[in-house]
Amino acid sequence: MDKFNKVFKRSSGKGRAWTRIPEVVQAVEKKFVPLIQPKGAHRPYEVVIVTHLTREIEPIEVNIVPYHGSSVNNNGAGIDENLYSRQLYVLGKEAMARMAASNNLISGLGGLGVEVAKNVILSEVKSVTLQDATTTTWDDLRKEKYSTVVVTETSGVSNLLEIGNWCHDNGVSFILAETKGLFSRIFCDFGPEFSVLDVNGENPVTTLIAGVTKEEQGVVTCLNGSPDAFEDGDFVKFSEVQGMTELNDHDPIQIEVTGPYTFKLKVDTRGMTDYIRGGVVSQVKTVKKLSFKRLEESIAAPEYIIADWGKLEHTETINIAFQALDAFVSQYSRRPRPYNAEDADSFVEIATDLANRMEVRLNVKVARIFSFICSGQVCPMNGLMGGVVAQEVMKSVSRKFHPLFQWMFFDSIECLPFEFDGETGALKSTLDETDFQGSGSRYDGQIAVFGKNFQQSLGDEVVCGCELLKNFAMMGLGGGDKGKIFVTDMDLIERSNLNRQFLFRPKDVGQAKSVCAAQAALEINPGITIEHHVNRVGPETEATYNDDFFENLSGVANALDNVDARIYMDRRCVYYRKPLLESGTLGTKGNTQVVNPNMTESYSSSQDPPEKSIPICTLKNFPNAIEHTLQWARDLFEGIFKQSAENAAQFLSDPRYLERTLKLPGSQPLEILESVKKCLMDDRPKDFQGCVTWARLLWEDSFNNTIQQLLFNFPPDQTTSTGQPFWSGPKRCPKAMTFTTEDDLCVDFVFAGANLRAEMYGIPQVRDRTRVGNMAAAVHVPVFQPRTGMRIALTEVEAQSQFGTLDSDRLEELKTILEDRGLNITPIEFEKDDDSNLHMDFIVAASNARATNYSIELANRLKSKLIAGKIIPAIATTTSVVSGLVCLELIKLVGGETNIEKYKNGFVNLAIPLFGFSEPVAAPKLTYHDTQFTLWDRFEVQGEMTLKEFLDHFKDRHNLKITVLSHDVCIIYSFYMQKEKREERLKLPLVQVVRNVSRRPIEPHVKALVFVLFCTDDDGEYVRVPYVRYVIPPSQLKTNA
Fold first, then answer.
1. pLDDT tens across 500-533, in order?
2. Which stretch is the leader sequence (predicted)?
């Protein structure tokens, strides 16, 4: 990528630059052509290179085809949902269709311009024109009707103002973006009249209604209120209201929130009929209109968002500094030299004059630092701002999310590993200007900011990470003689990874992520050292990622997608006292956390509350939202195609399976053996017709018989003991469905279910939908008769209690009749992203059929996959921003920063847009006796000793009486232990006690044991103390096996 940047820079201007065009084309093709090439695509994707040469250059057509439709104005009908699924969940089809019709010009292909181009191209737009030249001309702007023009390298204020004015007057969105060292600015002008169709991208709030009053401003009471569910000024619409039906047909109504469960309607309800029951209220998204000022008007008095509330005083100074830079370049025909005091004096003088004229206060220190580093380029800053700018491009053409209005100024000068005078900004270091001069290497941009010594330190780092590899490679991390990057990921590349992860290509689909990412990173920078693994990092791989491995690391960078893995890595980093850079994304939202040994709390120190689970009784009998029916459908899939098949397969292959099953608690043995009997005997199909019969009867039981039984127990007019309708509030009265081949839901369910059943039993499948429908129609279905006295759970407690009944006689019968039938049965693992496997077909059909039972709005396949597949929405821009923020913190760690106030945990939401930063929380300090400690501290114990000697060691040296000693999940010693057992253990070597109690050998890679202590003081009071790391004596290491 660095070569790519340099090629473009060398290609601007006249004369011999013409000879470098083939190299430019080759660089573009190498980096952009392989990005996305969906199968079956037929519309070429244009990347146009515009340069200032004496000869005209034809546009370069590049085979990137992210859009399948024959027309770009088809409301997204041709969007490849598998390729763009994660982005579709963020933007929606309508927004992506508008993006697919957009033509965009990016002027300036330095580090920032390339980052913007990369993200915009990955996002699925119609065309991107890349222009790299000293000056953007009118011909550049008039060649095509552009939707958005992005300028990342300026060539004088007057030219910039002309471009801004032209765009403003011609309906073209204009974005100015620049990074100078660790400083950046962004300006957006989307015209005098710009409509935002969806301000925040959040799903509209929907809730059930408990009541509506008849007043001048009717008060609505919700069933499941949430303090932040609705906001004052929101508009809402109603549906399914019984009684006050006038609300169902009413235009959207504005509300005023009066409490967590109530809000007022800005409409008179006194003339409406009385509210009876039911109803759903939903938030209505409204259009927000914005009027942008042109650059010429805005530059003198900018309206800006605050990027970092901890640096409010920096904002106006950064604005002045960028203008002073233009003036400096105009006067001296060059930028200030890195850390040159004379240039800095001249720069501050210019900035001071500008500040006085604009009547703003100048922070001289910040201005001088700007002069010192503005000639440099920092990869993470380009990645960060490239993501922000690309998101603004997407907003300008999709009208989705609130634009940046209108300026943002950002700096990260706390990354600098030097001290500066608080008043003048003079460098307080033994380094001089020569330490920041480049030598023609790819790292000259960073050296101009941080110096040569820092770059050497960066190269010598040894880190473990994955998704951040692109930035690591461009920064030169692990590029020194002692440096190395370890990357591990057990996942394989899927097509949905291609549009948001730059290192992967279509040819890589199905390959290991870590292998392909490492290879791509080495192409970017062959000078770094990478070792790739395909292991999951967890307890089962501790022989690989052992003491020797972690002790040689400089730090760890996580990019994990589940909390358990994050907690595990966090605990390992705490144990080995290694820095951890934690990050995560969710759509347009992202967060970063820096964990620094002996300084900050760890990732596990604070955790989000667990997700709310859906009550069993709601899933089984009383769903009221599509999320409920999708979870029910997913549970059905897991139960009939995976769990029951696994039980049957284990029964067939494991002679002791029956014995172990009978030892399970409660009714589990009966439930498991009943499912095994069904798989092997009752429901075992002989051919595909048998699979269709099974699926057809399953449909009847799920969507007709069960509903009839429920209505038999609780008729539609049922009332409670208080006289209230039973079917009210969250309980929706269902209706039984009737099977017909004219209903797609019916046929879809049987078609998918029958083929999946055939797959389980190794029976040839039939993928002719019409034929399967005809086969299903011929199945004899017994007439259902509701059963009297059947108990249906109404509450969670009742639902749970139904799992505790065991029929001993039936269990004995099953033990007798089950036998090995010589059958092979294959459990099916749910896979959401393979459209050919019919998994999602079954889920969608089952969920929507159940939703039809309960009059719940159906969900399309895309939404169903999101919920049932528990997909995390993702977009390339957020990944770019978060990766940039993480690497800025990495710079501080490499620089050895010891001031916690210099570190930043980041929180971003590109949709709003919102940027928030806070210093990490310091590691909490605890005390025992007069000794302070944090989570980073522990007792280090060495030497061969018995358990008694170990206990005496803490009593004598630390005045602590150990009452309970544990290792892993085993209690090694406790005061309440039987005396004989306690006395026996006290005499044994500590390592031998661990072996005996755990009943397993200590693995050869284990060099130390961890013990948790429960201690009391002299008064018998409980004392909280650190854990113990006990180094295994050499004599015991030999006997570990």
1. 888 888 899 999 999 999 999 999 999 999 999 9
2. none
